[in-house]
Amino acid sequence: MENKNSVKGMISMKKVKQILALIGAIILIGLYISTLVCALSSSDNFMNLMMASIYATVIIPVLLWAYSFIYKLLKKDSSSDEENP
After folding, report:
1. Measuring CA to CA, which residue among 46, 4, 53, 58 is closest to residue 32?
2. What beta strand segments (E) does the chain contain?
3. Which of 34, 55, 61, 68 has an alpha carbon within 20 to 30 A of 83's alpha carbon?
């Protein structure tokens, strides 16, 4: 019985990670596209958008990793609570 629960937990965690990675990739692609559009249109905000894109390239993956790590910790705590009433 424990094996089935752990397999289900791993499958759902894998799907959560895939969804978070996809969301992060879409956000980063959107940032770089908007930066490129501003560069081509000679916008005054080009440097601000470029700095935001570089910053987001580092911060978004770190935040997504932290969210998945916290999710894993909370999921582990809730499963241990269910095993020991």
Report:
1. 53
2. none
3. 68
